[in-house]
Write a structure and sequence with these properties.
Two copies of one chain form a homodimer. Chain A is α/β, with parallel strands linked by helices. Helices cover 32% and strands 28% of the residues of chain A.
Chain lengths: 361, 361
């Protein structure tokens, strides 16, 4: 019996999400290199094997170590290489096929000097997200970095890696497809420009919204969606998935009710859900609340939404009818706004078949 | 040598924060029952012993178990009692002096029926924060709950417990003191109203801003500040502490620089700092960035601030002069906006003397 905040994982939905993306990649003839930062779990990771996945993406050296220790032998760390961790990178590169991401001459010089084992190397390329990476149009910097990489013995240039994270700021499939198309054109132009000197350049493309709404991966060599393993409230809002595809929900006990303001208090706060938030009708929204039957949540029957979070409290707003049905001691399900951050906080899943699934510590 | 995101803890500052609050409570003749949800660490908890602390506050049954297993024998769970966890509450109550918080007749009935061991019981009282609890002016509900409690064998009524969390929405000492005074008056009036039937009512008062800026605890029997063990960027902003009092900082490696927009990218994201945010000059602010010398951060020499966070990336904005000094591979210190959530994510501290301090898992 569930008695405290518990992250439920519906394995059937999760497998179906994995299968859908794997099939899509297969059909489009691109490599599916899923980002494992969402689930951070050796067991969930192992489920991808049945769908032909043998290479993965992670977001830190620590996570690369964890999955390497769990049998993965082809890993890309899709985060600007941290030169202070060169020695762990070097050790890992001796054991597995390790790829890193660079975006400055300083990093290239330093790592080339320190490393004794070859690492595949991508240039982090920014197609408009504006978080980090070299702007795709900045051919001057690109040429300079490629010149540096050409003279490297241990940094083996592979191609350009892009995460079009600005798809997360959209609210429709059309907007996502526009961003994806613009990213594709920028990356292809860059590849063409460099193709005389580097005829084998590969293009690695990321982000769950793009890969979920599009089937057209022309020009790309691999795709790296991660969140699609679980999806979440935000992805539903963007249009990447249906609510029924979401594979995780936080079970929360009801501890108090406030009829005068139609608010229900659950044990389920910022240390469970994270403070990631959406704005819906100009109101903060920390997750959609659904009924929970045993350990299955009922989709498309929203009871309300999480309007506020403190460390352990979740404050849920409900219409009168839903409010009247909920009792102290009930368990409710919350679809997280951002499943990656919720999973990272919860550190374990309870599968809807009852088993506990552990994660990286 | 620091190579990856690491939560540094300055023990000297921490001890001085504990001592200041303990002295204040002693002088005011109120019990200091610190909230341990901020540090969640048996070792940090043990430091309070030297200042005469022998009773504590926690925010979940799980945390009560952890500290009970680490030698604490007088614990208040300052969160509306979760009736589904009655059996653990009952086991704990057999071993230690356990206090719980209730705010509904349903919870009182259920627990009285299930428990076989006595637990101290507070009524959660809302003096205007509006999160949860019975409104201090709602004498009708209060009388009803007290009547229920009077007939209980195992729920032993102690008094009213209040967390005036609306002090967090202030920006000056005067605003904090106004809220504190209003809370005090409401609680004293309530106590007076009930004193014929319950002559021994105790008043337990919380929140770090109030307890930090005021020395006047007249009328209260105990205070429960928690965050004051570390403080953070938000408490500095509110006026509860000086920047120099903050006892934790996240050390983050610089992985990329963007001169055209004066942004520095560090490894230090939402999974390290949490997404808790302040608004400064109408811009989101996720932490103040300071220089780090070995493992000591230099206060009052801000380099910039964290303007954006994704899962692993921190995006820091800096003025030109600071930007020019920072190099890829440097470690920078970030004062967290909310140290409770940062500590909860990091799951361990590195003391500035080099030792590693573990936390509840």
């Amino acid at each position: 019996m569930l008695t405290q905040p518990t992250l439920l994982l519906d394995k059937a939905k999760c497998l179906s999400n994995i299968e859908r993306m794997a099939q899509k990649a297969l059909k489009a003839n691109v490599t599916f290199r899923p980002h494992f930062k969402t689930h951070q779990s050796a067991e969930v990771g192992s489920w991808f094997r049945a769908y032909g996945v043998d290479c993965i993406t992670v977001s830190s050296v620590k996570m690369a170590l964890y999955f390497a220790n769990n049998g993965w032998t082809d890993i890309t760390i899709a985060f600007p290489a941290n030169i202070l961790e060169w020695s762990t990178i070097n050790e890992l590169a001796a054991k597995i096929n390790l790829n890193i991401v660079v975006e400055s001459a300083e990093t290239i010089h330093y790592l080339e000097k320190q490393l004794t084992n070859p690492v595949g190397t991508y240039i982090k390329t920014d197609t408009g997200y504006g978080r980090t990476g070299v702007a795709a149009e900045d051919y001057g910097t690109m040429q300079q970095l490629l010149k540096e990489l050409k003279s490297c013995k241990n940094l083996i240039f592979i191609g350009f890696l892009c995460h079009a994270g600005h798809t997360y700021n959209t609210q429709s499939r059309d907007e996502i497809l526009t961003i994806m198309e613009s990213s594709r054109q920028q990356l292809l132009a860059l590849k063409t420009f460099m193709s005389n000197d580097f005829p084998l350049i590969q293009l690695s493309y990321g982000d769950t919204p793009s890969c979920s709404v599009s089937d057209n991966f022309e020009g790309f060599d691999e795709i790296r969606p991660g969140n699609c393993v679980f999806y979440d409230d935000m992805q539903t809002r963007i249009g990447s998935c249906h609510q029924d595809d979401i594979a995780v929900a936080l079970a929360c006990p009801v501890v108090a009710k406030h009829p005068e303001r139609l608010e229900v208090i659950v044990h389920g706060g910022a240390v469970h859900l994270s403070k990631d938030v959406m704005s819906i009708n100009n109101q903060p929204h920390f997750g959609t609340v659904l009924p929970l039957m045993e350990n299955k949540w009922l989709v498309n029957q929203p009871l309300g939404y999480v309007a506020k979070l403190s460390q352990e409290h979740g404050i849920i707003k409900m219409p009168q009818q839903a409010f009247d049905k909920v009792k102290i001691g009930d368990m409710l399900a919350v679809l997280p706004v951002h499943s990656c951050l919720t999973a990272n906080l919860m550190k374990a899943y309870q599968s809807t078949d009852g088993s506990v699934i552990s994660m990286m510590v």
